[in-house]
Amino acid sequence: MKKNFCSLSHIQLAFGFTLLASGIAIGQMRVIIGSVTDNINNKPISGVTIFQEGSDAVATTTISGIYRVQVSGENPVLVFKHPDYPERKVSLGDRVFVDVSLDKESDNENGNKNSNGVGNEKAIEEVVLNAGYYKVRDKERTGSIAKVSAKDIENQPVTNALGAMQGRMAGVTIVQNSGVAGGGYDVQIRGRNSLRTYSTGSFNANAPLYIIDGIPMPSGNEFRSGLASAVLPYSDTNPLNAINPDDIQSIEVLKDADATAIYGSRGANGVVLVTTKQGVKGKTQLTFNSSYGLGRIARLPEMMSTKDYLKVRKAAFANDGIQNIPVTAYDLKTWDQNREVNWQKYFIGNISEQSSHHINVSGGSENTKFTLSGAHDEQTTLFPGDYRYKRNNAGLSLQHQSTDRKFSVGFSSYYTTQSNVLPPTDFYRIYTGIAPNAPELYKADGSINWENNTFTNPMAAASQTYKTDSRQLISNLSLEYKILAGLTAKLNSGYTESRVNEKRIYPKTFYNPSTNIGSERSAIRKGETGSTSWIVEPQLSYHQQIGKHSVNALVGTTFQQQQATSQVLYASNFPSDELIENIGSAQSIAVSSAGSFVYHYQSVYGRFNYQFDQKYILNLTARRDGSSRFGPANRYSSFGAVGAAWIISKEKFFESLPWVSFAKLRGSYGTAGSDLIGDYQYMDTYQTGLYPYDGVQSINPVRLFNPSFGWEKTRKLEGALELSFFRNRINVTGAYYRNRSSSQLVGIPLPGTTGFPSIQANLDATVQNSGWEFTLESTNIKKDKVSWNTSFNFSSPRNKLLEFPNIKGSSYANTLAIGHSTVIRKLFHYTGVDPVTGTYQFEDVNKDGKLDSNDRTVIKDIGMRWEAGITNSIRYKSWKLQFLIQVVDQIQNNSYSSAANLGLMGNLPIQFLDYWTPENPNATFQKPTTYANAALTSAALNFTNSDATVSNALYVRLRNISLQYDIPAEVFKTIQMSVFFQGQNVWTWTKFRDLDPEFVMAGFTPPLQVFSLGFTIKF
Question: Contact 262/271 with Cβ under 8 angstroms?
Fold first, then answer.
């Protein structure tokens, strides 16, 4: 009994201390009530946000201008904000009833300047950033977070918001993979951390984590059918393809350890946070916008004429010593020698049409807000044929808060359907393979022309149409309850579902009729992929402010599961091509591949933020993750970061610098990780064999068990200085970062005697990404009728392989080098064309009299060296002009890699007419060959692997421009209307020959130049 009594006494004592502590906390809290009115006409102002300085709790005024907010501490300061009025701060003292009037001329309670004599920190304090699990005011953040808002996204004719982000963020490199409708984007945040690429697996190991309204998007596609590999790079798209840009309120990008460590293993490559638009209280408002645009390839080379082309072909046969041109050289022997066709214009020189229609209905009361949205987008390709991409979106968002402000619930759901009809191969890679005097593609009756079996008609292959249909659902439910003053419980949950159906049709028209192949050889390949994912994240947050001390704490846990299934069917032997999409009519159906996986992920995370006197800030984050993708010995790992900031402008010695509005020094260090390797990679796995043995289906081992297979880790370091001058008219940030990634998840090669080519393991290699980032924002003019704002960003990244044990003896010896970037080319040193023999010459480095891999000693780092973007936003009365100029300095592969085709059937740009002849001994290119001459053939192939095919690709691009006119309100009274003109990839200056300097992915259409017109109506 005594033991029980003692235990009970301890419980009672602990409970008593809890009540006492709660009483103290509650005793420091008080409720402030008041109204907000306009100082000129004394009318109430609704939608004013009010919060205590240093606190995250926010209240808003009702339609009657009434507010109610909780504060704590001695002499708290209330901040009042509204987009139409300057910010106002009020020191409360011991007051509990405070009425405030806002004046468009005054900045604080008495219209006076602050202690620095430069006004309050309005521009910086007004920006609230989404850091994922929490929100933070810009001036108080210790991490590196970049942001673009709706107004930046809306001003560009793009179907994916990533296109609107290009050139706007320091340290964020975005390249569109293809100009084909529905294509994807390659996004790198502060460089490439992993040695793995798409070519080594179905996961993009350097892709950031995408989170839409609190829901992480599935990390990678375990299954790829490969049906679209020739028309969409990597057969991949992008998670943001499913979101209409007009539905996005803001996009924040988390870059450094302090910002990403709370996401642990998922934050190594940075985090992209997408927030869709929510309802705004007030009268219900309907917004409709519509636009129509035209796109084309802005930069294409001029091709050889038939006369020049035939001259090259004849010279090639002569150089190879062939006197009698063979009959298989149809372009010289059979086809019309005077025929001239611009195949470039026919296949990729067409116009792409784009249309977009979006409707949004939003509104709400003091307690409940809502928004409904719908959109339809269509885009055609540049290719000849009825190819078209369609997207439909429907969104719903609801937020409700109880009258006492203790309980709130939010729900959002976003549903997207996408369909795309494309050729099986990007036509960009077709037009160069056709002679300019090739015959007509179609006969008079519309059938494919084979020109008496002398023409391999590309339209035959194009009849293998690729079709895809997808459905995606993203839903989020969040619940929040304020348990005590400063203590809040929250539950974030989400569900995503995706279904993708792909088809590739192989009709009989693919075959030459002379082969007498009919519908019995017609076939269809169908790929079906389905995935579902759910996540539940309960968390507790606590905020307390006592005097000059402010504490914010957060603790939570994550439970996530993702499941996917995939199946690829091959059906053939149809009675008619009319039934080719009806798989049930096929005589033969086979399962090419099938599979499924389940991915489990769980973690616990926490954040502790301490501020003293609004000058010194310490931020600690930690996370422990568990992933089913790793072996039992390394399934769990811990990640964390520390960030600190010193707001120097709060110090007294800064009072002597009235022209400095704000100054902050911040830094961070921490770790993040990655499990982007695919599922079951550590296990013994098997696959069914192609052929049965003795009537029994065989099973073959394909992967070895590795219980030590574990996390890839990245250590991040950053230091930054933020400054604002002249009442925040000029804001400058400079930052240096260094990220080091180790324990690389790669396939380590094994001896052939093991029976396996490699084993999945952690390679003891280290990749470093470092660089400088600078941003500048300035308010050049700010008047009632005229305003002009400028923003500038600059990045100078460096990617380097620091360590790789025994690299010279590994299979990576030809693709990696210590001290260089992870994307390199090892090349021969090209010394020119021999003026006597007319062949390419290269340096024999080891002087052994032959040219081999030992002579490929020139190492070129492929990629960006630095980039800059400058945006100007100008307003004059009802006119708004915005434009972005991007400058990029980079090393890229150039068009000389096509020189090996000089002399073969197929056209080339006119630059290749500068080839060697006795009359032109100092030519750029060697004499043409049909590959019948061994010396010329070898030299041509070596040339494509020489440093002549790599060059500087610096360019200056007018990335986008937008001109908008807001029709005066008195014209339509109750209707607001705007009309706009938008342009994307408007103009480019570069010395880089023939290709788009930004996009050099061989065989794929580059991003398009797009111009669009549209209007917006608000009721």
Answer: no
Give the strand pairing for 215-216 and 209-212: antiparallel
Residue 782, token pair as written in the block: 């700010």
Q: What are the pLDDT digits (tens) for 527-562?
A: 999 999 999 999 999 999 888 999 999 999 999 999
**Residue 280 clears pLDDT 50, i.e. is over it:** yes
Q: Which domains does the chain have, with CATH numbers?
A: 2-112 (2.60.40.1120)
The CA distance from 675 to 664, in Å, is 35
SS3 419: strand
Burial status of residue 974 (CB atoms within 10 A of its CB: 0-12, 13-18, 19 or more): exposed
Higher pLDDT, 753 or 962: 962
Average confidence (pLDDT) over 11-31: 43
In one-letter notation, the amino acid at residue 662 is F
- DSSP code for 266: G
Alpha carbons 133 and 298: distance in angstroms, whole number: 43
Question: How many Å from the N-terminal Cα to the C-terminal Cα in the chain?
Answer: 74
Cβ 423 vs Cβ 387: under 8 Å = yes
Q: Is the dihedral of CA 890, 896, 900, 906 positive or negative?
A: positive
DSSP string of 403-415? TTSSEEEEEEEEE
Structure tokens at 899: 């020189």
Dist. CA 996–CA 232, nearest whole Å: 18
The HSE-up count of residue 783 (CA atoms within 13 Å, CB side) is: 5
**Residue type, position 492, single letter:** N
CA pair distance 260, 622, nearest whole angstrom = 10
d(Cα 579, Cα 849) in Å, to the nearest integer?
62
Nearest to 309 by CA among 433, 465, 150: 433
Taking the C-alpha atoms of residue 510 and residue 203, their distance in angstroms, rounded to an integer, is 33
List the beta strands (DSSP E) in 297-405.
Answer: 352-364, 368-380, 388-401
Q: Please, what is the Cα angle at 129 between 123 and 135, to 5 degrees?
A: 125
Q: Which of 795, 796, 734, 737 is nearest to 770 (CA)?
A: 737
CB-CB contact of 90 with 50 (8 Å)? no
Q: CB burial class (10 A; 0-12, 13-18, 19+) of residue 327?
A: exposed
348: three-class secondary structure by DSSP: helix
CB 827 within 8 A of CB 858: yes
pLDDT tens string 703-724: 788 877 888 889 999 999 999 9
CB 780 within 8 A of CB 788: yes
More confident residue, 51 or 642: 642
Closest C-alpha to 531, from 470, 590, 468, 478: 470
- Measured CA to CA, the distance from residue 30 to residue 98 in angstroms comes to 13
Alpha-carbon separation of residue 299 from 156, 349, 352, 846, 995 (angstroms): 20, 10, 15, 41, 7
Task: Copy the structure tokens of residue 215.
Answer: 């829901």
**8 Å CB contact between 688 and 651:** no
Question: Which residues on adjacent β-strands are paired with residue 668?
Answer: 643, 718
Structure tokens at 496: 């995503």
What DSSP designation does 852 have? Answer: S
Nearest Cα neighbor of 232 from 563, 529, 504, 572 is 504
CA distances from 402 to 368, 542, 709, 775, 946 (A): 9, 20, 49, 41, 69
3-state helix, strand, coil in the chain (%, to 5): 15, 50, 35
Residue, of 44 and 552, whose pLDDT is higher:
552
DSSP sequence for 722-781:
EEEETTTTEEEEEEEEEEEEESEEEEEE--GGGT-SEEEEEE--EEEEEEEEEEEEEEEE
Burial category of 870 from C-beta neighbours within 10 Å (exposed 0-12, middle 13-18, buried 19 and up) = middle
Cα–Cα distance, 308 to 913 (Å, whole number): 8
Q: Where are the alpha helices (DSSP H) in 359-399?
A: none
